[in-house]
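Usage

Read records sequentially. Each one opens with the input sequence:
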Amino acid sequence: MSEPKITFTTPWLHEGHTIKAGTLERREFANALQLEDQRQLLTNDVASAESIEQLHDIVRGFLLSTRRSNEQIKKVDATAFATMELASRPMLLEPFLQEKSIGMVHAWRGVGKTHVSLGIAAAVATGGQFLRWKAPAASPVLYLDGEMADCDLQLWLRETLGGMPELREGFFSLITPDLQTAPIPNLSTVEGQAVVEGCLGDAKLLVLDNISCLFRSGNENENDAWSAAQEWLLQLRRNGVGTLLVHHDGKMRVQRGTSKREDPMNYVIQLKHPADYNAEEGLRAEVHFTKARRLHGAAARPFEAKMEVREGKAVWTTRDLNDALAETVRTMHEQESMSIREIAKVLDISRAKAHRLSKTVPERVSAADSSDLPF
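and closes with the structure output:
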């Protein structure tokens, strides 16, 4: 993909000089230059530049003045707004991920953040199904990874796509550090953001995996350090691009750093290891929506997901969290000969609940056979 740029010509430059610019900056120029007075002002200033440095200063100053002139906010009458015809936001992945959504997947290390994020991205890009979620149509996705080795990411991607419909060319693009000649740009900076914007193309979803590796300025625990990044995410949304951020949990098992990140988000998914999890099992995690606008009822219930690789393909199964807990109780009671009192203490549940669960017959649901689920 060609590098986004703006070209200028001055009396002392026989060939046009290019300045790197992001998609949003180029759009600002286009809008501003539609006005005759601003176009003439820029023309005069550019002609007066005597060096490349002065030219860059003039361009930055012009953009800044344009932004300031557009800073006046708009108000609208509530009655008019209630009847206004607004563009709809189609679902990218039903029932929770709409176009222009901002969301997060977070978990403690090793729980399965990247596997789940790749699954979401692949389902959106192929129009496929992942866990209990279904994409109504294929939509372009850009996946930006900040830390994985290329061979590991390739393996996981192959396994993920193995269980999806055929992927159309150009619908799923990746940026991974091992294929670069320089470090991945810092997305806390305008320059870094501009580089990523230049790679978006027609993408409807941008996956950023992960916050710690990609946003490298400031203190994670300080609100102000995240402000610039948040403004960028909101600007991307205004321009039709949704974002999914991948993040680590801290020692308290909540997303690491400032909670301000979650304020503008439409959904937040937390992955947790079940209480009886054993590392030998591979990937098995509880899936919780800790925030989900417009999501309610059965669709908002937490569930357990398990991934197995069969013949090179990732195969996911899910079951309701209550069923998963019931199976654990039955195993502890029948196979390990633990008393109801002991089980209740280990799982931190009441004895009445442990007794009730011991009589429940759980059912595991294949992700491929979940079309009869009520969401």
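Summary fields computed downstream for this record:
- Confidence is low (pLDDT under 50) at residues 1-6, 9-17, 21-27, 368-375.
- The chain has twelve helices and 16 strands.
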